[in-house]
User: Fold these one by one.
Assistant:
Number 1:
Amino acid sequence: MRLDKLLSSLGYGTRKDIEFFARRGYIKYKGEICKDATKKVEHEDVLFDNEPLDHPHGMIIAMNKPKGYICSHEDSGRLIYSLLPDRFASRNPKLSTIGRLDVDTSGIILFSDDGNINHSLTSPKRHIPKVYEVTLKHPLRGDEQKVFASGTLMLNGEEKPLLPAKLEIINDTLVHLSIDEGRYHQVKRMFAAVGNRVEALHRIKFGNIGLEGLEEGEWRYVSMDDVLGSES
Ligand code: URA
């Protein structure tokens, strides 16, 4: 791909900016300064300011989302994208979250700049488990595991029952809930359906990706194999 096209698609600037950076000697190709912004290059052989380029198109990122951040590109308040390098905001195609977490939910959130990856990781047909640690307002009443596992639970206003979900009880107000889909406010609505209320929600796993090594607000690149684990 042309150097200016590649770098501008990765958010390093407009094509004009890249031409400027090249003329100033900021860009190396195969170890040599490259002043020609129209040169055809391979991503892995380019250095910008002596640093390898950001991940090419088709990347997946895992972040430990803190509470208080919104999974949206345009909203008032703190946006989750502000926790990523500024350059990522100018990537084309755009980086988006894979599904969403509510503003008051914390934990693992994935991002991708590839619509196919996004679609494949959110499709309920794939049965990729998302595991939430849920703190409840009221003690469990006793039938929740059965109701959630039934595959017949209907949420208010929906036409299709939820897929079976797995509830692991830690104590009577703390549980781990594993679901394979991602409907709007799903976990909060599931507990509302059994007469309870979610006090705190923290996603501890998305597929095979956990929070290990990620402090709040930190992120890392992951691969499709990392997400799918032994399934892939
Ligand atoms: N279910 C919810 O209710 N909220 C989230 O943020 C994620 C799942």
Number 2:
Amino acid sequence: MTDKSNDKHQQRQQKVKEQVDARVAAAQDVKGIFQVITGNGKGKSTSGFGVVARCVGHGKKAAVCQFIKGTWECGERNLLQGAGVEFAVMNTGFTWDTQNKEADTAAAQATWQESKRMLADSSIDLVLLDELTYMVTYGYIDLNEVVSALNNRPPMQSVIITGRAAHRTLTDLADTVSEVRNVKHAFDSGIKALEGFDY
Ligand code: ATP
Ligand code: MG
């Protein structure tokens, strides 16, 4: 790099730094953050669990509700339960197969009661509601109840909801919304879900 282009580079970087510093200084609110991670691409739950790990790594308390469609083992659960993270898991491995709406609703509701307890507990810094979007879509959990629990949670508590096709009401309410786009996925070329990578 010539001296001249280096000068230009430094000037540009200085400008960027000033703009970023100004925006950092302008962000004054301190409150829990509500994030929705949605979209068809891979990386929603793993992103949510990444924040749980981050939270625990700072000595804070996190809790997880999994509204998952199976009973398969979950690598994150194996690790994070050992680090003191409470998990509430919907056990519907069989009923999902049989499409038993009544049993599915009961299972979703049972896990939702745990979620509500977590969302009212000010000792919990972060609540991850993994795959909750589907429960709202199928009508197993009432959207208004979710909104009310989110709005009434302790002010410093953060919440992450993951799952495809998040309801517009949830994305409107969220402080941060990330949509993971599917560019390609190994499954499409016939590669099986891999332990330690996909679950
Ligand atoms: P991950 O848990 O890996 O972050 P996710 O939460 O974004 O994935 P889900 O819709 O919850 O995605 O699906 C969970 C499982 O389905 C994972 O094993 C994941 O690899 C797989 N999966 C995710 N996206 C796709 C896709 N676009 N095509 C096929 N399989 C997918
Ligand atoms: Mg997921």
Number 3:
Amino acid sequence: MNNIAVFPGSFDPFTTGHESIVKRALPLFDKIIIAIGFNTNKKDFFPLVVRENWIKKVFVTYENVEVVSFEGLTIDFCKKTGAKYLLRGLRTAMDFEYERSIAQMNKYMSSGIESVFLLTTPELTPVNSTIVRDIIRHGGDASQFLPKEINLEDYKI
Ligand code: ADP
């Protein structure tokens, strides 16, 4: 398997925006590893295991999608898994500036790994995990921003 991509993120929670990036990128790679980065010092909204199980449910029928969690530098995780590509999604100019710095720093540290960006589809541009968390926190209905396999009732905050 040559073309492995890692799609890293906190996915707290995994949204329709994330789902769309993975599904649209599938024809480009032999395998996509959705890698949930965790940081023991950072407070999560949904526990890691809940996020992981939700994403696994979304891709249960996809043989070429793997869901794992990792701690540490994303490029080190890529090396460990043999991934040569880092997949990221771009919504706005702000995303672009942020992603550009990370991708270029990653390139300094590991020249063999290429960052690949997919532009969001227009209707998913505003979908954002931070806003989805706020909706949930305040009792609103966020279901339209989540893949249909993710049921918030599975996890009561
Ligand atoms: P991080 O915590 O690393 O920013 P996120 O979980 O917020 O990770 O997002 C992971 C990736 O998904 C990032 O590249 C982000 O830009 C992308 N992404 C998030 N929401 C969308 C969306 N609506 N459309 C396209 N890409 C998105």
